Amino acid sequence: xxxxxxxGAVALxxxxxxxxxxxxxxKTMTWIVPFAAGGPTDAxxxxxxxxxxRQVGQTIVIENVAGAGGTIGATKASxxxxxxxxxxxxxxxYMGAGPALYKKLSYDPVRSFEPVFRFPDTPLVMLVGKNSPxxxxxxxxxxxxxxxxxxxxxxxxxxxxxxxxxxxxASRAGIEVTQIAYKGAGPAxxxxxxxxxxxxFDQSNTALPQVQGGRLNAIALTSLTPMAxxxxxxxxxxxxxxxGFEAATWYGLYAPKGTPRxxxxxxxxxxxxxxxxKAWTERMTSQGIKLLPDAQYAPDAFGKFTAAEVLRxxxxxxxAKIQLD
Length: 325
Description:
Structural class: alpha/beta
Shape: globular
Strand order of the largest sheet: 2-1-3-11-4
Largest sheet: 5 strands, mixed
Number of helices: 12
Strand content: 15-25%
Helix content: 40-55%
Distance between the termini: 58 Å
């Protein structure tokens, strides 16, 4: 009799879970963005959330939980209920390089989350001042090899994307450069414009206005293929300088571990439908954002990509001896 009662309870629980999943979404969802409002991560998250919310028929609220390079927000997301109503907007910093940069993390980018979908990428652009003697990445590498540590890169802060990409570039190019950390991308770019530093890596979308306005010159891209429309005549590093070189500031949506698979798949399908809006994707492309093949947006592919990025940045951070705590 006791066994029958237990079996009945389990059946009722399973039935309620199935019913809840079928009814999803029945209330407002929250996307945690671990940066302050107004930045590039926040802007992209809000743009994508708006499109996805229309597809799923529910409001998506952005909750900005800034601090510690994004790790505070990621920690909060990892501890949230796995009920399909709380998600994390991930970034290569705290979801790729985080485990290498921080000795103590309360979450694991791979084990603590379910990958939902990857956002379009933002490759980086190698920038120099408009009066710089370096007209190509090859020029820069040759000068750096002739005088180790004489050339420098500005970056948005220790452990920032611009810092990590410059470290990867220097390692792959076989050069030694000096890294100068600023309190944010704005001051770093301003000193590059003013000629106080030699070069900087910045995201393709945020660098575009500076290049189009003639304040900075773009001399290389970190994408495998050219971005002829946005950066005409600018060659990828992979083309000649460093064969196979590829890097981007990547983003994506994650859910707490244990979130029902059908919820993850419904979110993914809603996202793919949103990407069918050609006017929207055209706008992203014109802003310097790089669309990916549909297969790369999928949960499983995004999960494998995340795991590979954790390993990659662990090697880069260790080699460059970067540490945040």
